[in-house]
C-alpha cells in the first residue's frame, strides 16, 4: 500500500480536450510498513499537510513538499476507514464497536472518547462507523454500518445523539453537506441498491431521493456508490464502487430558506 501525489491544476484543457491534454505526473509515495495500506486521509490547510490512518492502526502526516510520510502515533484499536479534521485542529476517527477517537497534532498517542455510535441492542460487538462529515453548524454527522443509523456528535461538548434511520437498509457509506445546508448521504447494504437521501438539520427530517440513474451518455443505474463530495458550485460528485465504475454529477435543486 501507499500514497500518490498528483497536481491536477497543472493540467490544461476543457471538455473533451481533458482526455487528450498534457498530463502531470503521478508521484508514488510508499509507506514504511510492509503491506501497510491507507484507510483514510484528511487535509490540514493551515499546515499544508495531509494526515492519514493506516491498516496497521497508525496515524501519519505528509507535508505537501515532503517525500516521505512521518509516523506520529499508533492505537491499540482497529481503525475504521473514516477521518476528518475539526476546526480546532484535532482529528476525529472511529474504531471497533463504533467508538470515536481523537488525535491532537503533537501527541504521541490516540485518545479514545467516551462515546460510541448507536447500534441495535446486542450488536455492539459488530457495530461500526462507515462515514463522517463536518457540517457548517459545527456538528459532526455520521452513519453506521450494520444498522444504518444516522447520528450527530458535538465536538465541543462530546455529546452524541442518534437521529434515526434514513432508510430500511443498513450501511451509510458516505456523507457530504450541500451548499443549502442539507446533509446528503448514500445508504446501501451489501448486495443492495444505493439510495441517495438528505437530512435537514433545521427540521430534523429525512428524505429518500431514491435510486440514481443517468441517460448521459448511456442509460446507467449505479448499484453501489462509496464516495460523495460537494463541488465548488454546489453540485455533488458521486463515485461508483462496482466492477464497472463511473463518476456521476448530481445537481440538487436550489432550496430557498
Structure notes:
This protein is mainly β and 257 residues long. The protein has strands at residues 2-5, 27-30, 38-44, 49-54, 58-63, 70-74, 79-85, 91-95, 99-103, 111-116, 129-134, 140-144, 150-153, 160-164, 172-177, 183-187, 195-200, 205-210, 225-230, 236-240, 247-250. The chain has no helices and 21 strands. The strands form six sheets. Strands 3-4-5-6 form a four-stranded antiparallel sheet, with no helix packed on it. It has a four-stranded antiparallel sheet with strand order 7-8-9-10, with no helix packed on it. A four-stranded antiparallel sheet has the order 11-12-13-14, with no helix packed on it. The radius of gyration is 19 Å and the shape is globular. The termini are far apart. 27% of the residues are buried.
Short description:
The chain is mainly β and 257 residues long.
Low-confidence stretches: none
Radius of gyration: 19 Å
Mean residue pLDDT: 91
How many strands, which pairing sense, and closed or not: the largest β-sheet?
A: 4 strands, antiparallel
Secondary-structure element series:
EEEEEEEEEEEEEEEEEEEEE
Q: Number of DSSP helices?
A: 0
C-alpha end-to-end distance? 45 Å
Amino acid at each position: 500500500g501507499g500514497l500518490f501525489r498528483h497536481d491536477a491544476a497543472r493540467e490544461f484543457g476543457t471538455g473533451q480536450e481533458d482526455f487528450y491534454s498534457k498530463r502531470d505526473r503521478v508521484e508514488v509515495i510508499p509507506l514504511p510498513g510492509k503491506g501497510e495500506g491507507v484507510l483514510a486521509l484528511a487535509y490540514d490547510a493551515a499546515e499544508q499537510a495531509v494526515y492519514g490512518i493506516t491498516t496497521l492502526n497508525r496515524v501519519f502526516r505528509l507535508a505537501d513538499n515532503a517525500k516521505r510520510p512521518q509516523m506520529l502515533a499508533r492505537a491499540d484499536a482497529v481503525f475504521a476507514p473514516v477521518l476528518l479534521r475539526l476546526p480546532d485542529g484535532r482529528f476525529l476517527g472511529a474504531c471497533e464497536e463504533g467508538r470515536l477517537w481523537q488525535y491532537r497534532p503533537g501527541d504521541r498517542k490516540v485518545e479514545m472518547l467516551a462515546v460510541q455510535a448507536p447500534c441495535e441492542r446486542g450488536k455492539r460487538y459488530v457495530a461500526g462507523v462507515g462515514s463522517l462529515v463536518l457540517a457548517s453548524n459545527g456538528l459532526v454527522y455520521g452513519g453506521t454500518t450494520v444498522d444504518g443509523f444516522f447520528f450527530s456528535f458535538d465536538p465541543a461538548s462530546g455529546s452524541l445523539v442518534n437521529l434515526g434511520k434514513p432508510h430500511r437498509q443498513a450501511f451509510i457509506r458516505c456523507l457530504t453537506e450541500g451548499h443549502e445546508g442539507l446533509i446528503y448521504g448514500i445508504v446501501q447494504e451489501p448486495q443492495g441498491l444505493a439510495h441517495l437521501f438528505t437530512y435537514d438539520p433545521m427540521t430534523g427530517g429525512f428524505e429518500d431521493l431514491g435510486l440514481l440513474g443517468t441517460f448521459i451518455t448511456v442509460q446507467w443505474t449505479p448499484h453501489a456508490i462509496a464516495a460523495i463530495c460537494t463541488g465548488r458550485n454546489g453540485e455533488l460528485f458521486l463515485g461508483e464502487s462496482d466492477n464497472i465504475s463511473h463518476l456521476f454529477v448530481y445537481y440538487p435543486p436550489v432550496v430557498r430558506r
